[in-house]
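Checklist before submission:
- one chain only
- standard amino acids only
- sequence pasted in full

Submission:
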Amino acid sequence: MKILPAYKTPMGILRTACLGLIALVAFQGCSKKINFQTSTEVPAARGYVKVSKDDNKNYVIKLELSNLAEVNRLDPPKESYVVWMGSENNPIKNIGRINSSGSLLSRRLTVSFETISSVKPNLIFITAENEPNTSYPSGKRMMTTDSF
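Returned file contents:
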């Protein structure tokens, strides 16, 4: 009688398939992390966006940025950084403002930003604007992600 390794038995195959299915389901619940591209406008800036779904099936969008120049030091100086979101079948949307003065940016010029959207983003970018409540980007893209 030939003895098979545990992973070649019917129970072993079933166990492996179940573990694979569990891993696949767990992976889909995780957030997706997208790095910002290196910018010619603020070349020292680095950062990423994490997108995940909450219990209400909304998209949680979190940005982590470092070495982001203060907007009043840009040429020309601006009022604030504005975060924009592109999504399928929807126009570009202002999803919030990043303050970069005083205590909101630390000495390392780091900032976190979080918001919730009912639609799935496929592009996130940041501009420097004079009017933080603007409905369409007028400034250069300071940082941008690839489409995701």
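Reviewer check: The chain has two domains: 1-30, 32-144.
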